[in-house]
Amino acid sequence: MSGMNKEKFESRYDIWLSMCENIGNIRAKLLVDYFGSAEKVYKADTHELSDIEGISAKMIRELMNKDLSGANKLLSECEEKGCSLLTISDKNYPSRLRNIYDPPTVLYIKGKLPSIDDFPVVGIVGTRWCTPYGVRNAENVGRALSQHGIIVTTGLAKGIDTAAANGALQGEMPVVGVVGCGVDIVYPPRNKTLFENVSAHGAIISEYPFGTEARPEFFPPRNRIISGLSLGVAVIEAPLKSGALITAQRALEQSRDIFVLPGNVDARACAGSNKLLREGAIPFMTAEDIIDEYVDLFDTIKKPIDNETPLDYIDLEQLASKLDENERAIVRTMAHTPQFIEEIISKTKIAAQLVLASLTALELDGHIKRDNSGRWEIAVS
Question: Which of 94, 111, 128 is a domain's end point?
């Protein structure tokens, strides 16, 4: 039997165990730890199983069902879809995740999962109903972390998750998306391109089998995987009732660091994240604040350069001197960070039609350009 076939042969026992409805991840881990492998759990008899505290008679009856056809079917589907899987018995299963209270028995993978334990990983989470401030910071933080050697993991939901993933894809490191559905399902559907990019430059992972549609009850369990893979979790805009706060709670239970971007005290989108700050979370203003926490732990992290700036002040003033009043006001909003049109209109108080006209003229003259997220930035030569 070849190495690959042997691995597949052995993994079907973990898949079988994950498909036992009344067992769950916690007891599955208990059983694997007790017997040494899922195959030995499969081969255990009633007498051996009855010796284990916490395993009921009902569970034993279910474990006596030795039908492997469902597991074999999933293995075939995995091959047909060009995906892979990792079981908790596999030596390549991330040890950070294995050591949480309730690790997934099986991880389905689309793409290539990086060597999680060899690199720093930071989760980025936040609300779906975010502000332009949140989008800008999530993308900037995701990009900077990836550029400095940190893997970003996030849930690929709309809002903060999407912005963080888009930013991280502009860096050098793989990106890991954790979804609350099968890895062959795109949710939300609008993120089809993002899912393709993440699976091409990293991996999309899930504990749910192929074809499993997204359901609300799947997202809280999904969040524990994001934090379980990570050294720390960065929260960017979270209301008081938010999945991001569930992720933060799971991260605390797993002894992970919690970083929070301070938000407007009047913004509902920031009420939950600001509450985390009052409770002792680590505040951060830029990605460098997060990088500093881990830079001494990993040789792979590139230290930030203190004097990095998007655009020199003198260059900006030289550009502004060539422009009319409206154009000067517009480019000055982009002095430090790219801006969405809505942000430019809000900051300059210039009528929308005049802003659009000025942006067109500035772009044609080569003074500004749009980035991948649709924001406007100064085109530095």
Answer: 111
